[in-house]
Amino acid sequence: MKATIEQLASISVFTQLQFEQLASLQPHTLVQTYQAGEIVSHEGDRLPPRLYALIRGLLRVSKTASSGKETILRTLTNGDIFAAPALFGNGIAPATVMAESASQLLMVDREALLAVIQANPEVALKMMAVLNQRLQQLHEMVHGLVSERAIVRLARLIQYSAIDQGTETTEQGVCLTLRLSHYQIARSIGITYEECVRFFKQLRSIVAYSRGGKITILDWGKLDAIAQGLIEPDSLAVTNRKK
Predict the structure, then answer these.
(1) 5-133 maps to which CATH number?
(2) What would the pLDDT profile of 139-149 be if each residue is shown by its tens digit?
């Protein structure tokens, strides 16, 4: 099935394109539907040379170690692009992508996309900005796994999710738009499910966790202090940062 103009316009890197430019891409598109739990691509798969983007649903991007332990790299939402090696690299999927919910993917053939980029270099700049942001996030994740305490990594993940995916204000506090299960969080920051549950109980005066993965920030100031390493995980007492 071909994409509609509206679906093309919903992709983050295409927001500045004119109707005629989107229309020129339309014949070179493909929309596919995936059910929750269905694999979009396995790590190591050969990918056709296309732009891959999510137009509806949620996708989990993860890597699995030889031990079988899964690490969740990120969760993709509407408008996000992924599988950069299909456009700029060796065409090998760098991670496994799975549908977290019923999802629709939009794909654009590489040659048609390059023709649009020639006329609109801003598209390439936007794509580079997205990929650079993800490289920085990956660097911070690796650095955190090596040197930061788990509670600091948890606070930073909550902050990043709030900034990247948005929030909504409720009577209780600021609620993350993205729903994150204990399993997703644990696999994103390198802790066990049980540790994740324990940390949320410890932080219940700062962050509220509800059934279905709803996270509400009750105290932004203290959450930021934890993310900066200014609050000890046991006592939650503010300490001076070591010089």
Answers:
(1) 2.60.120.10
(2) 666 665 556 88
